[in-house]
């Protein structure tokens, strides 16, 4: 199993979604406060609503921006908290396709798409590293 996963969320209407050919997913929706988390993570990426790379892992990795801590299971999904922002977010059962068992922490980082994707960082801005280890 990969240690770091990458998906490319993008906005579809007012919500963030992602596609995965490998998992057979199209416009898989992030619900509730997950949208707040993705918006905060991608705020320094130009045209992030058109797509960005979201790297995530159950283990810390260099440059991670946020740590989400597991709270509880509910409705076949998992609740996590971003303590620094006091945001609870619920991930549906699709998370189990990446992690078959509950993981206590999720670590994530938003990056612009490559040059072919068109997204770049806004001038003089770089993602804020929250809780990153160095």
Report the count of strand segments.
11
First and last CA, distance: 25 Å
Number of helices: 2
Mean pLDDT: 87
Q: What is the approximate shape? A: globular
Classify the helix fraction into a percent range: under 10%
The low-confidence runs, each spanning 5 or more residues with pLDDT under 50, are 115-119, 126-134
User: Secondary-structure element order, as H and E?
Assistant: EEEEHEEEEEHEE
Structural class: mainly beta
Strand arrangement, major sheet: 1-6-10-7-8-9
For the record, the count of structural domains works out to: 1
Q: Which value, in Å, is the CA radius of gyration? A: 14 Å
* Main sheet: strands, sense, barrel: 6 strands, antiparallel
Strand content: 35-45%
Task: Supply database-style keywords.
134 residues; mainly beta; six-stranded antiparallel sheet; three-stranded antiparallel sheet; 11 strands; globular; disordered C terminus
Write a short abstract of this structure.
By secondary structure, the chain is mainly beta.
Report on the structure:
With 134 residues, the protein is mainly beta. It has one domain. Helices cover 9% and strands 40% of the residues. It contains 2 helices and 11 strands; from the N terminus they run ββββαβββββαββ. The strands form 3 sheets. A 6-stranded antiparallel beta sheet has the order 1-6-10-7-8-9. It is globular and about 35 Å long. The two termini are 25 Å apart. Residues 115-119 and 126-134 have low confidence and may be disordered.
